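Q: How do we represent a protein-ligand complex in a form that can be generated token by token?
A: Start from the inputs.
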Amino acid sequence: MESRVLLHAREYEMREGGKIDKLQRGAFHLSPLVGWMNDPNGFSCYDGSYHLFYQYYPYKCEWGPMHWGHAISRDLLHWEYLPAALAPDQPYDLDGCFSGSAITVDSKHLLIYTGVVKEYEENGKFKYRQRQSIAIGDGRDYLKYEKNPVIDEKVLPEGANPYEFRDPKIWQKEDGSFRCVTGNLKKDGKGQILLFESENAFDWKFERVLLENNGQFGKMWECPDFFKMGDSGVLIMSPQDMKAQGDEYPNGNFALCLIGEVNDETDEFVPKTSQTIDYGMDFYAPQTMLTEDGRRIMIGWMQNWDTIQVRQENGKWFGQMSLPRELEIRNNRLLQRPVRELLTMRHNEVICKNVCIFGKCCLDQIKGRCVDLVVEVACADKEGNGKFELRFAQGIGLFCSLSYDFSDRKLTMDRRFSGSRRAAVHSQSCRIENENEALRFRLILDRYSAEVFVGDGEQTMSMVLFTDLSADGISFRSDQKMMMNLEKYDL
Ligand code: FRU
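Then emit the structure tokens for the protein with beta-D-fructofuranose bound:
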């Protein structure tokens, strides 16, 4: 049955999205066709294309009744918009189609998502009832399953809160059966990850609590993703309401990775290590997929609920996805690198070797807002412990920066002077875990974002920035003599 709500959204986005100038968007980062975007959803490979859906409210640059926007790509960098895939139009999802995932079942593309419905209390306040539902399609049009919802409060374990129960991530095991994890809040106010099982991806039963929050990591755990890499089990999730801990975990919302042991028979998971996924201001709700050539790729919402005021003035869209990142596990640590497809976009190579910097310096041909910059820098004196700074998106009175203090190994990303008039979080730091004297990183600039990959991808930092595109300067400074090697490519 055709949905009027969906048709209306499709007409609207086609008309209004077409009015947005290409230069107002990232060149190789997905933004919504029009209006609001948050989490990546249904990141998958189907019928020869990568599919990426997103939490979407086309009518305003604000969060509203969630739809699923849709885009496809062949290289994970250039995206073509398809019409919105889901709209809130059924009794069980009338107030929103929240986050979820996708998989291929019998040659069909199956989406599993959280349908939400407002339930009002006597005092006029409301809560969202949250249940998991399915839609099946051909990569463009999706039909909601007549027996929805497929997972609801009836199967929840004792102590689980049915109003904080969302974000199903589905996968198929080697024996052909299906599993999915969801986030949930226990009635004691701490998060947990629930694991469900199914023989056919339609009929689900509760299997076990995959992991309970012992209070260390925030409250509700959103957007879980669970997969194996080699022999390790990896659980990714996004805790809310975190209290900062030392240098490692920031306040508020952020993405967390736990690596540990998984029992293939019982699906038990015992985490051994934990790590912040991205130390910048803007990275949340990541989701992964496996490519046909066996790479585990992760993409995140390059925003954070605490920084959503940082935006284009009078923009017609809000929200961007991060670069898709290839994952690797080394020494129980998650490494992230930009997808290798990005190398094919590189052009105008400039290589500068053994550049001596002391004070301020600019280099010939090193500028731009769509740039891949590979930097290695060390103090000339081995005992040196000076400060290095790279400024980018630089114009008159404007710049963003990445600075490194060799004395305490702190790397800081800063956009206070990017032109923002908002008092949001504009700077974050992380301590670089690296044995070497030199600092090595890759900085990827797209028009309205910056992502840093340190070393072999041991640490990353991401942020959005909305400085006018004419601010395309790049410069370096140091308070001691330093030696730098640099490669720059336009993208
Ligand atoms: C995470 C999240 C999800 C939810 C969606 C709603 O950013 O809160 O838990 O499904 O956004 O848009």
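The two ends are 44 Å apart (CA to CA). The longest strand covers residues 473-490.
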